[in-house]
Design brief:
Elements lengths: L1 H18 L24 H16 L8 E3 L30 E3 L1 H4 L1
Antiparallel strand pairs: 1-2
Amino acid sequence: SLALLTAAALFVRGAGKAASVDSGLKPGASYLLEVDASLAGYEPKRAQELYQNLNARLGALPGVEHVSISATVPFGIISSDKNVQRAGVNPGADARPSTAAEGLAFKAA
């Protein structure tokens, strides 16, 4: 029908415009290294030391401008729905989710 054809055309046009939006990210100049130390049996403290060591060593490589550690990446397919809060404090009705990131996470993107 004409309505379905019009809706499809509008969808394709909108998708094309969305794909051409400049997100500010430069994926061609970025690398993503996913590491889960718990899979190798690392305890949390030792895992944190590993991540800090990787951060320092990768940052020392020639040509590397920025290195960061993050729980998630912008527009990634993995999301975290874990709630973290201080003991004894209940979040208010206006509480909002956030992403854990460290260092130059957003500058590196």
